[in-house]
Design goal:
By secondary structure, the chain is mainly alpha-helical. 41% of the residues lie in helices and 0% in strands. It has 3 helices and no strands. The longest helix has 10 residues.
């Protein structure tokens, strides 16, 4: 089966082309919950995030 990474290459045999296309075009169920929220908004509110990280990492 094919992988979804760009760091690997793969070949589809000509006789398996239709099977491959059918598999790769199937709809998939969402993996995130409806109440999912990102923590990125919290990080963007931290004005000195870079400085704080550098302090912690330098210890």
């Amino acid at each position: 089966m094919a992988t979804s990474t760009f760091s690997k290459q793969f070949m589809v045999m000509p006789d398996k082309t239709n099977e491959f296309v059918n598999e790769m075009t199937k709809a998939v169920a969402p993996t995130l919950q409806k109440d999912f929220h990102s923590n990125l908004a919290h990080l963007s509110q931290e004005k000195n995030l870079k400085n704080n990280l550098l302090k912690v990492l330098s210890k």
